[in-house]
Specification:
Elements lengths: L25 E6 L2 E6 L1 H14 L9 E4 L12 E4 L3
Antiparallel strand pairs: 1-2, 3-4
Length: 86
C-alpha cells in the first residue's frame, strides 16, 4: 500500500497547519501506565501527516500537537501532547 500525503510547508508567520482526513476517529487512554491510541484508517493517516508536519526542519523545538476531547479526540479520551524537542 502506498499513501501520498501533502504536508503544508511550515511558515513561522502562520504556524503549523494541520490537515485532517475526512472521517477520522481517534481515541486515547492510559491503562496501567500504558498510553493507548486507537484510530480508524483516516485517524492514523491524519496523525502520520501531523507527525511529518512537526518533523519539518524549520519547525522549532517546543512546537507541539495538543489534542483533547474538544479538539479532535473521541470521548472518553485523555489529552495527547506530542512535542518536537530537537
Amino acid at each position: 500500500m502506498q499513501i501520498t500525503l501533502e504536508v503544508p510547508t511550515y511558515d513561522p508567520s502562520r504556524g503549523i497547519e494541520y490537515q485532517w482526513t475526512a472521517g477520522f476517529s481517534i481515541q486515547t487512554t492510559v491503562e496501567q501506565g500504558v498510553i493507548r491510541i486507537q484510530a480508524n484508517k483516516q485517524g492514523l493517516v491524519s496523525l502520520a501527516s501531523h507527525l511529518l508536519n512537526l518533523a519539518q526542519d524549520n519547525v522549532t523545538p517546543g512546537a507541539h500537537l495538543h489534542l483533547d476531547e474538544t479538539n479532535a479526540l473521541e470521548e472518553p479520551s485523555c489529552e495527547l501532547l506530542i512535542e518536537k524537542i530537537a
